[in-house]
């Protein structure tokens, strides 16, 4: 699975990822890269006693902030919640078709009561 000199895990399966998920992974990598650069600069500052270049630091933090914003927009776009919502809709359609109207009304009433109490 892994080579002694390369500890990176090998992919178990080769299923292609959706573009959105690929972009999220790329954003996470870019954010981690900037975070590591800032940490490295801070360690060098501590070791050498020299201040971090404020212009570079400002640019790095600004780039990081833009990446975080893009990541948040991708996540707020619907993403996994959208597919989960479709699955819930399909489940509701299946259950509605399998129960008579009286039982369905009881189930809906119980679901409303639970959602208002916060038991879900």
Which class of secondary structure composition applies to the elements? mainly alpha
Overall 3D geometry? elongated
Put simply, the count of helices is 4
Spans of at least 5 consecutive residues with low confidence: none
Taking the sheet with the most strands, its summary is:
none
Strand-and-helix sequence, N→C?
HHHH
Helix content: over 70%
Mean pLDDT: 84
- What percent of residues are in strands? under 5%
Keywords for this entry:
120 residues, mainly alpha
Describe the structure.
- There is one protein chain.
- With about 120 residues, this protein is an all-alpha fold.
- The chain has 4 helices and no strands.
- The protein has helices at about 20-50, 55-75, 80-100, 100-115.
Summarize the structure.
By secondary structure, the chain is mainly alpha-helical.
Write the layout of secondary structure elements.
Blueprint lengths: L18 H30 L5 H23 L2 H20 L2 H17 L3
Helix pairs in contact: 1-2
């Amino acid at each position: 699975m892994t080579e002694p000199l390369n500890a990176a895990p090998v992919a178990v399966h080769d299923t292609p990822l959706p573009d959105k998920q690929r972009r999220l992974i790329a954003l996470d990598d870019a954010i981690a890269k900037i975070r590591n650069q800032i940490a490295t600069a801070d360690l060098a500052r501590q070791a050498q006693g020299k201040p971090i270049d404020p212009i570079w630091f400002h640019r790095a933090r600004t780039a990081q902030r833009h990446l975080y914003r893009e990541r948040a927009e991708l996540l707020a776009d619907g993403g996994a919640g959208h597919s989960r919502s479709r699955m819930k809709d399909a489940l509701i359609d299946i259950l509605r078709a399998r129960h008579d109207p009286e039982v369905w009304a009881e189930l809906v009433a119980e679901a409303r009561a639970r959602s208002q109490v916060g038991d879900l």
